[in-house]
Specification:
By secondary structure, the chain is of the alpha+beta class. The protein has a single domain (3-469), classed as Cytochrome P450 (Cytochrome p450), CATH 1.10.630. Helices cover 54% and strands 8% of the residues. It has 23 helices and twelve strands. Strands 1-2-8-5-3 form a five-stranded mixed β-sheet, sandwiched between helices. A three-stranded antiparallel β-sheet has the order 4-12-9. A hairpin with a 3-residue loop joins β10 (447-449) and β11 (453-455). α14 packs across α16. It is globular. It binds protoporphyrin IX containing FE (HEM). The site of protoporphyrin IX containing FE has 23 residues, from α16 and α23.
């Protein structure tokens, strides 16, 4: 008997997980649309650590315990692939790292990993500081004026990821109009991701040929991005051939590290742009909003930053990474608002998780947002922004699989070091110059689920604007 048959037979002697009855085919889809991530908290509290969406058209299971998560993401990771919704976006991601599987993924991850090593990341530092300073000094951030923080952070992180990928000159050559065309194309992709992973998910999955206007806009957006990337790949190949390469950007690393075809380089580049800018922008947006709601923590952080940048210069890399409060603020913000609110896998063979049978083809959902709000690990104040909880003892005692902003196991985010460095630099540069306030701190933020967790409305903050970062700043008054 084949191994998978044995596993299947063994697994089938275990019960299916319990779960709520829902609307036939849609399952809990509409409830999710109404309640968003709170639905997962309700599921866990009502049904336990392994819960099935009983009425959905496809087998869907949610898992919540660290043991179950470790099993799916680490111990039995080879029995799971990325899920079908992510795969349905292959027009964008192609064979990029986020969705590739098996030997292709293994080879490419190994080849690309060195481009994300700490010494390589340090090469992007000066550019990240420069870009952040430019924005922090922008006259549009005038004292008292309102800023749409998500929009500002998205532009900044897009500029940074493009410069890291393609080098200084390629980005500088972009006219404002071209930059906005790229931003617009990325926005169209985000719209499609949201549409095709929402209540319409089954329709878009089951009828991929159906001529929806949203699908048409999505395809057009992919073409715009492809055209831009392909032009740069072509130019870089010529530079390399002529021995005339400039800088050590990511594309040059991809072109020199392996015998990647242009299509493979395109897939990786597009994946880095998509995986690498909005996630970072969301973390910055949610962090700045939380700090505006909690002025006492913002003041404390500002004071800490002043200590490491006393004469108005940028903090050194070492000082920035030693700043404990900055790390605590970022971790607490990512706990409450993980930019990737769920991780998803598909079982290729039968498995038993937490005592329940997982049938092959099941979607296994790991709802990060709800796991980060589990009282068993985070205490009774799970909904409170309290960076001080992240003491060394707390970090040590926390099961590894219940803090998942960057995932866990072999498929963990390759850009984590890049993102943390970027987030720390941007927060330091901005918070040294601006104090943020929010007009109505008690109005809850409406969120919308997609591949990322985005704010539904503009996140409007007021900046005190324009202070020089010297000790004499009136900032703390
Ligand atoms: C705050 C920022 C970021 C967050 C929260 C984040 C989150 C994640 C998560 C949760 C995963 C795992 C997905 C899974 O297991 O299904 C992931 C994978 C990935 N991320 Fe990030 N990410 C961030 C920044 C970046 C950046 C800056 C880059 C690149 C420049 C990047 C590139 C990738 C890639 C390529 C993968 C797939 C890795 C693989 O499967 O080998 N990410 N990210």
């Amino acid at each position: 008997m084949a191994m998978s048959d044995q596993t299947l037979q063994k697994a089938s002697s275990f019960p299916l997980a319990p779960g709520p009855k829902g609307i036939p085919i849609l399952g809990q889809g509409l409830r999710f649309y109404r309640e968003q991530f709170r639905m997962f908290v309700w599921m866990r509290e009502s049904f336990g650590d392994v819960v099935r969406d009983v009425s959905a058209a496809m087998p869907i299971v949610q898992i919540f315990s660290p043991e179950a998560i470790e099993q799916v993401l680490v111990r039995n990771a080879k029995n799971y692939t990325k899920d079908r919704v992510l795969r349905s976006w292959n027009l964008v991601f192609g064979d990029g790292l986020l969705v590739s599987e098996g030997e292709t993924w293994k080879h490419d991850r190994k080849v690309i990993q060195p481009a994300f090593s700490p010494p390589r990341l340090r090469e992007y530092e000066a550019m990240m500081i420069d870009q952040s300073k430019k924005l922090a000094g922008d006259t549009r951030w005038s004292p008292g004026g309102q800023i749409d923080v998500f929009q500002e952070m998205t532009e900044l992180t897009l500029r940074i990821v493009l410069r890291s990928l393609f080098g200084e000159e390629s980005n500088a050559n972009l006219t404002n109009q071209e930059f906005h065309a790229l931003s617009h194309a990325l926005e169209e992709l985000a719209n499609w991701f949201e549409f095709s992973s929402g209540p319409w998910m089954f329709v878009t999955l089951l009828f991929p040929w159906f001529p929806l206007p949203a699908r048409f806009r999505y395809k057009r957006a992919v073409k715009t991005l492809e055209k831009y990337i392909n032009t740069i790949i072509e130019r870089k190949r010529v530079e390399l051939k002529e021995g005339n390469q400039k800088g050590t950007d990511l594309i040059t690393s991809l072109l020199t590290a392996s015998d990647f075809t242009d299509k493979q380089v395109r897939d990786h580049a597009l994946t880095f742009i998509l995986a690498g800018h909005e996630t970072t922008s969301l973390t910055l947006t949610y962090t700045l909003r939380l700090l505006a709601i909690h002025p006492e923590i913002q003041d404390e952080l500002h004071a800490e930053l002043l200590k490491i940048a006393p004469r108005g210069e940028s903090p050194s890399h070492e000082a920035l990474f030693r700043c404990e409060l900055l790390s605590q603020v970022i971790d607490e913000s990512m706990r409450l608002y993980p930019p990737a609110p769920v991780l998803a896998r598909e079982a290729t063979v039968a498995d038993v998780v937490g005592g329940f049978q997982i049938v092959p083809t099941s979607s296994v959902i790991i709802p990060t947002w709800a796991i980060h709000r589990d009282r068993r690990y985070y205490g009774d104040d799970v909904d409170v922004f309290r960076p001080a909880r992240w003491t060394p003892e707390f970090r040590k005692a926390l099961p590894r699989a219940v803090f998942l902003p960057f995932g866990f196991g072999p498929r963990m985010c390759i850009g984590m070091g890049f993102a943390i460095q970027e987030i720390k630099i941007i927060l330091a540069e901005i918070l040294l110059k601006h104090k943020f306030t929010i007009d109505d701190p008690s109005t809850p933020m409406r969120l919308q689920a997609s591949i990322t967790m985005r704010p539904r409305d503009p996140v409007l903050l007021r900046s005190s604007g324009g202070f020089s970062n010297s000790n004499a700043t009136p900032w703390l008054n």
